[in-house]
Amino acid sequence: MSWIYLFFAGLFEIGWAIGLKYTDGFSKLVPTVLTVASMIVSLGMLGLALKELPVGTAYAVWTGIGTVGTALLGIWLLGEPATVVRLACIGLIVCGIVGLKLVA
Description:
The chain has helices spanning about 1-20, 30-50, 55-80, 85-104. It is mainly alpha-helical. The chain has one domain. The longest helix is centred in the middle third of the chain and has 24 residues, at about 55-80.
């Protein structure tokens, strides 16, 4: 169950990271409320995952999911560049996440 909590914590991290862009410096009410709610859910689920998982593994996987998801959504939603090197680096992060899951 801890890995499920961690996975969803990572998804909500993506939500708040992308949400920050839409808050326009916290000047837009609805995106700000949704971003803050996503932060709370993400940290709460990370806390639940940490009941059973090692902190180093859980934190690395949580930030990795957030990093990969945010980078991909940045490319898709925000028109950020999708260079070969950038996509290869994202792939390396995914390999690290999978590796941590396999050894934990």
